[in-house]
Automatic annotation (TrEMBL):
Keywords: Oxidoreductase. InterPro entries: F420H2_bilvrd_red/Heme_oxyg, Pyridox_Oxase_N, Split_barrel_FMN-bd. This is Pyridoxamine 5'-phosphate oxidase N-terminal domain-containing protein. It comes from the Bacteria.
Length: 150
């Protein structure tokens, strides 16, 4: 991966905080849901409920597809990322606490939460490691993507 595309990916990950992630249900149907995320380099983390359908799906198959983007005001300003990745349950308490600390930092304008932040016992935390990243940038041409194999 060249330095320019890596910087573009990291900038997109930093400027956004919401992704749509698709997991595979036991019946084979994809399930897409919107979740908040934090990132550390190219690795993403998200939380979900202990008994969520996402957690159940990932216990059976760790493959995911995801998108990160926003609603551009002009057609040729569309940018975003899509990824094929693997999502693994984070079991290390130190890593779990680091992720829980990082999440509120994505919302610097929010000075107080209406509820307490969950603890590592309240949620499942997943580490998402990309295998393929597609970088969408319409400023380079309609539907232009750069494909990066990780």
């Amino acid at each position: 991966m060249d330095d320019e595309i890596r910087k573009k990916i990291l900038a997109l990950l930093e400027q956004h905080r919401i992704m749509t992630i698709a997991t595979i249900r036991p019946d084979g149907w994809p399930q897409a849901t919107t979740v908040g995320y934090v990132s550390k380099g190219l690795v993403l983390y998200f939380l979900c409920g202990l008994d969520s359908q996402k957690a159940a799906n990932l216990a059976l198959d760790d493959r995911v597809s995801l998108t990160i983007d926003d609603d551009a005001s002009e057609l040729m300003a569309i940018t975003g990322l899509s990824m094929a990745a693997r999502a693994k349950l984070v079991l290390d308490p130190v890593e779990q606490d680091e992720v829980l600390h990082m999440l509120p930092l994505k919302y610097p304008q929010q000075t107080k939460l209406p509820v307490s932040m969950p603890t590592r016992n309240d949620v499942r935390i997943f580490r998402v490691t990309p295998t393929v990243i597609s970088v969408l940038d319409y400023s380079k041409g309609f539907g232009h993507t750069d494909l990066v194999v990780c």
